[in-house]
């Protein structure tokens, strides 16, 4: 049995802007979360977070690489997805749905735009931390 790690990351993957790449991001997140001692239920929530981040960026026009970063510190698993987007309407109804889902499965979350850079992030606090 391996020791659980309290701090992991940042682990960064760069993925093509395709919905199918969500699976690669989820597999990476699962590995990082398992090493940090997150439960199966928490890993399921993390996978929902990763899917929401990827789908939202792809569906809103990502044509460049999506960088997904996973970071674990102090019992918090943070997912950040970022890419360059020509337009990213923070008030779009799809992003409202994304916020609703992230609110249901994460401890905190955000959707941000800085010029042409779009970022979606969410954090899950480990239940035993």
Describe this structure in words.
The protein is an alpha+beta fold and 129 residues long. The protein is built from three helices and five strands, in the order βααββαββ. Strands 1-2-3-5-4 form a five-stranded antiparallel sheet, with helices on one face. Helix 1 packs antiparallel against helix 2 and helix 2 (40-59) packs antiparallel against helix 3 (93-105). The chain is globular and about 40 Å long.
TL;DR?
This protein is 37% helix and 32% strand. With 129 residues, the protein is of the alpha+beta class.
Compute the CA-based radius of gyration.
14 Å
Describe the largest sheet. Answer: 5 strands, antiparallel
Which percent range fits the helix content?
25-40%
Summing up helix and strand content along with how strands pair, one would put the structural category as: alpha+beta
Helical stretch tally? 3
